[in-house]
Amino acid sequence: MKSLHEQNLEVWFLTGSQSLYGDETLKQVADQSQAVVDTLNAAAELPIKATWKPVLTTPESIKAICLEASANPKCIGVIVWMHTFSPAKMWIAGLNALQTPILHLHTQANAALPWETIDMDFMNLNQAAHGDREHGHLQARLHLPRKIVAGHVSEKKVTTRIAHWMRAAIGWNTAQNLKVARFGDNMRFVAVTDGDKTSAQIALGISIEAYGVNTLVDCVAAVEPSAVDALITEYEKIFDIAPEIAKGGARHDSLRYQATLEIALERFLEAGNFGAFTTNFEDLGALKQLPGLAVQRLMSKGYGFGGEGDWKTSALLRIIKSATEGLSGGTSFMEDYTYHFGPGEPKVLGAHMLEVCPTITDQRPRCEIHPLGIGGKDDPVRLVFNATPAAGRVVGLMDLGDRFRIVSNDIEIVKPDKELKSLPVACAVWKPAPDLATSAESWIYAGGSHHTVLSTALDAEVLSDFCQIAEVEHLRISAATTSGDFQREIRWNGAYFKLSSLT
Fold this sequence. Notes:
The protein is α/β, with parallel strands linked by helices. The protein has 16 helices and 19 strands.
């Protein structure tokens, strides 16, 4: 899987003006817009660089650059700025042709006005205050999904918001090129993990491809023992391995089998250019174990995963991992498993059968083997740990039949009240905002998924920007949420999306 650095992604910076001002002024416009880009790129929080493009002064040049941006696989978005007054009708054809996310930066070259020396030359050069209004009018007329950021480009709050949008654009680019491999189907009779795969590809770009589990069985059979030996050596360096599955232990073969699964799965995913995958404990074919450690390891490498055939959560996990690459914290497949209502502060215990990503902990994970009461296969090896306390959010993607909906909940991961001595899986304990009761009610009112993505790296604005780019409904459960307001938001959103579908 290619890293963000290896992908060489770009955001193009487009500056609007017009020939009315003359060559001398346009040269100043170009110099100042390049300086804005230089200032922007100096901000450490930006995940990728902005690429300056020549000043645009004609409808033809605007349309050409928008078509070029849309066709270039390295360009994942554009930032537009009207340095001077750029009559917006010049932008109609270009913006209609644009197929990338757009951010409208409302800034100017100077932070402060030169009060004592300001003259009409200065005024004619620095017109973004109304030039961007003109541009904004057209964007509104075209109903463009866009982000608007106002402020001087030297301000950290400005570059931080631009960085958030860039990360959302990275996530959108991932979605547009994402292939999800499904081994088997959904868990039988489960509703929320089901969904319309064609609609998902239309709305989000993700392609979901099904494979019989015995395709994976064949890949497992092809793994050479020397590759397993090398991976076991790697495990020994980073995990505390239980004696019974360590080298020389009575059940060491079980650890070797999970290593074999990891190698087989990764080779399959790499060969097919898959960024995410699913498994199903009900459909394991000739596999000896449900993939546990193997899945946890692949998630830690950036792959998306969903249990029980949950392709939506698998895709969402990969999207969020790509959008948060390089940030502190981690991102994992998760499930609200059980509650602590009291005594003390109510909390959620999140876990799954096996598959929790070790990027959400700073502990050295323990590699253990325990029985699994479902699936009818051998006891699977898994990593056991507790998530590190941190602020984060859990995010779910669901298919409502007429549209997709993303629900997020701000959370605070905390230490368990007591040691979880008998819990044989990785887990996270968190306090959901605003409180457990309101959070739980809101999830249920929203038709929320029981599988989620837990991330301590994802900023709320990044998720909001992604949903805006994708034109997907986003319901956020936060400290300000009340059950009544949340229900009203659901009803209002329902009316909006129904009406918008008629246009």
